[in-house]
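Sample 1 of the test manifest.
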Amino acid sequence: MRVFVPFDASDPKTRLDPVLGTDERLSFARAMLTDVLAAIEGAGGDPTVVATEPIDIQVPVTVDERPLQDAVNDRLAETVVPTAVVMSDLPLVTPETIDRLFSVDGAVVLAPGRSGGTNAFVTRHPDFRVDYHDASIRDHRAIAAAIEVDPVEVDSYRLGTDIDEPADLAEVLLHGEGGAAEWLRERGFEIAIADGRVGVER
Amino acid sequence: MRVFVPFDASDPKTRLDPVLGTDERLSFARAMLTDVLAAIEGAGGDPTVVATEPIDIQVPVTVDERPLQDAVNDRLAETVVPTAVVMSDLPLVTPETIDRLFSVDGAVVLAPGRSGGTNAFVTRHPDFRVDYHDASIRDHRAIAAAIEVDPVEVDSYRLGTDIDEPADLAEVLLHGEGGAAEWLRERGFEIAIADGRVGVER
């Protein structure tokens, strides 16, 4: 299956700024992207990175400087279904996770993310489009309904866990099995408990 | 399968205090418990509530005033495996979710929750015990290893989403299909977007 993986190659993961420098944010974002691409390829998918500027990586890259939503919708318009889109900040995904996503039967298959996000989807309907503003899962249910599709949702913690904020790094250390977890460990990050909450320290 | 569902009937969900009064917290916690019990029964499970004080509910209740960990470990010690434990604050679970948990083959099957929690598990080994302090998923992996079990993890967003804080209520409104979501809607809660973050307002 053709899989588009959007990637902000310019100034990624700004909400990790409190714990990572600018160069580190880019390096960590690349490590997460590499994990996601490996999972997709391990599940037999055919990934293309849709990046905001050229990057050197071992899969095809399309450069599109526009906002995420426009870049994704243009790819959907010009690609024969089935097509999948998987976010690049999901370092918990494994080949088995992506295989589950691909294997669910449905014209539109959505993988919800925390706080109303849509972290991945498969469309087998040529008219499905995305709207990534605010609680996008609601919009994607409505967009599917508008083309008379009853969307199916895949129930996955690994697909649902996108890494945006410092507290999210604990998820990578607790559950990641790839390069992003290794990246954090090599730079001295470890799980720390403060006031009963699980976080990280360096 | 015998399923124990621990429930704080005394002062539940204190972190929801900013948005719910004391009586409301108990009422909402009961609505979540009811959803969880319905999902367990819908999957063919045989639930027993382990409550800190007597409650009136249509399934067997055992009262145990001790901390969660002691109450659960005593039940595990006195019950013939297989046994499951499912937390009561998982209003996104459906019968299908619980059926997945029950169906995974493994001597110890863990369902990770956010921030290192263990929101549910099945044990088919008589010596598995719990440790709910801090990042419990790490402890449960270690406890399983100590009895020479390689634990299996079930990858479920619905099992992984426990409701502790006001922001978590958005998950109930976005994904809940039972009484807890209805409870919130009836009391005027709805999704609200502030500073690009998804939350709730009343």
